[in-house]
Amino acid sequence: MWDILEESGPKKAILVAVLLPERDEAEVRRSLDELRRLASTLGLSVVGEMTQKRSRLHPGHVLGEGKIADLKAMVAAKDADLVVVDHEISPSQLRNLENATLAEALDRTGVIIEIFHRHARSRAAKAQVEMVRLQYLAPRLRELGAGKGERQRASGVSRTAGESRLELDRRKIRDRIAELHLELTHLTNERSHRRDRRRELNRVSLVGYTNAGKSTLMRALTGSDVYVADKLFATLDTTVRVIPGTSPRLLASDTVGFIENLPHGLVESFKSTLDEAAQASLLAHVVDAADPAYLRHLQVTEEVLREIGAGDIPRLLILNKVDQLDAERIAELARQHPEALFISAHDTEDAHAVRARFIEFFTRGLVETEIRLGWQEQGRRAALVERCQLLEEHYDENGLVLRLRAPADLVG
Fold first, then answer.
1. Are residues 266 and 333 in the same domain?
2. Are residues 188 and 216 in the same domain?
């Protein structure tokens, strides 16, 4: 079903949405604008839109018969290749829509899954996305030659006697999903062991809506070469880096961005990746303050954080991209969010301000103490400095003397 996206040449798309009773026009407009950006991320050129107000999606074609006729005419007039529906629709609705319009069709979930598929880079992300992709594809398989009762001959090596092409494809998908599940279990265990080794360290996780600027801020804070791009879901892999010059040592993690109506399968699949956020001591909630829908983005992120078990972790709200706002708008946002930090992730001084707020959070409640390490205990210095704020150190006749600000449990 994604084959047309792999073909050479630009593809034209028409967006379709239904104004359901629970969605007002402003919400539908916002969702269509986001769908346009999703389509653009796939390299599609949006050449038209069609909406219809209905009490529910048409069970056969999504839109009513009159609108379907209008959509078919628009597809022909615009020479469109694709119809992209701003809803998750059933396999039969997808097939009926294609038959009625003579164009390929994708729903919102299919678009997001394809973007994830293209942007996955690590072994874990590729396996996670492939599994969700196959689970989505399985009920949408179409049997080639189904009307002719095509059957595989018993002499086939791959198929059993009487097994149809559709049955074979579904069996292959089931087998591949089982393989991926085993692979992901192994990778999840590896990731869990790495997290266990970092358990006692201070960890802050950057979370937020897709394209809010998390990776740009991560690069500014850590100096790492994490992938940065002005497109949706540029980051799918959780990256953990040390923030230089922090005492105690502070780790930052960059996570996959969220989006409204993120397919449940993707949330489930990436839960092991998002555990980095669920086990952080502080969540830095990065928001694109220049986006008119930023309040909805805030809400969606909070909903996903609750879903992954991170709802009670302390937050630092960071309103990013203020360089795109005028002074009046910034003042208005400051009144609405007095606790927030206003930054541009591209500004070095702003990155230093974020770093300072992190340090302030993790040094609260530290107790000043003096620890003496004998000559045979010098190897413990690195572990102590990693967890404590080093104020002073010197040697005397008995060994090393450290003056530290340390967590109360460590002092005990």
1. yes
2. no
CA distances in angstroms from 115 to 16, 35, 39, 125, 194, listed in the order given: 19, 12, 9, 12, 28
Instruction: Tell the residue number behind the tokens 């979370």, with chain if given.
Output: 207
Number of domains present in the structure of the chain: 4
What is the per-residue pLDDT across 214-268, written as a single tens digit (0 to 9) for each?
Answer: 989 999 999 876 555 555 665 556 778 899 888 778 899 888 788 877 766 677 6
The CATH number of residue 253's host domain is 3.40.50.300
Domain range enclosing 401:
367-411
Based on the domain organization, do 95 and 133 belong to the same domain?
no
298-306 LR contacts (CB < 8 Å, sep 24+): 300/209, 300/258, 300/259, 300/260, 301/207, 301/208, 301/209, 301/258, 304/258, 304/262, 304/267, 305/207, 305/277
